[in-house]
Amino acid sequence: MSERVYLERDYRNSLITRFDDTLPELLRDRVTEAEFRLTIDTINELFRQADRYTVATCLESTIGCLSCFTLYHCYDSMYIRTQHEIERFIEQQNQTVYNAKGLRWRNPFRNGLLHVRESDCVVIER
Questions:
Q1: Is 58 exposed, middle or buried (0-12, 13-18, 19+ CB in 10 A)?
Q2: CA–CA separation, 30 vs 47, rounded Å?
Q3: For the chain, which residues score pLDDT lower than 50?
Q4: Which region, left, alpha or beta, applies to residue 37 given φ > 0 means left and ψ of -120 to 50 means alpha?
């Protein structure tokens, strides 16, 4: 039977997608503070990059709108590319750090964690 640890979304910095960076008590004996901090800080930084508005993202959105969004059939948006980067990072962290300790981070996108009405957390299974 798996035990689940939930990392809640952190809404202190407005609506920017970020997760609480406090190491849960249940993981203190399994994961070092440095390992956890590297993982959660990288995920939070990638979400910050995904939510950033730049000239490139505004231009991408404008061209997408003008092309009736057919652009996105040929080209992934900046947000989608960052989403894939987060997925790859979580998978890499699972393989190099967490799987050996009997833990596994779940992909927050596949668990509906960006939707406030869903359970807003990252799940780490034991």
A1: exposed
A2: 26
A3: 1, 114-121
A4: alpha
Which helix H or strand E contains 74, and what residues bound it? helix 71-74
Encoding tokens for residue 16? 């920017």
pTM of the model: 0.80
3-class DSSP state for residue 40? helix
For 62, other C-beta atoms within 10 Å of its C-beta total: 10
Question: What burial letters (b/e) apply to 18-27, b meaning 16+ CB within 10 Å?
Answer: bbbeebeeeb
Q: Which residues of 79-94 are buried (b: 16+ CB within 10 A; e: fewer)?
A: eeebbeebeeebeebb
Distance of CA 16 to the CA centre of its chain: 12
Helices first, then strands: H and E counts in the chain = 4, 3
Instruction: State phi, psi for 123 to the nearest 5 degrees.
Output: -105, 130
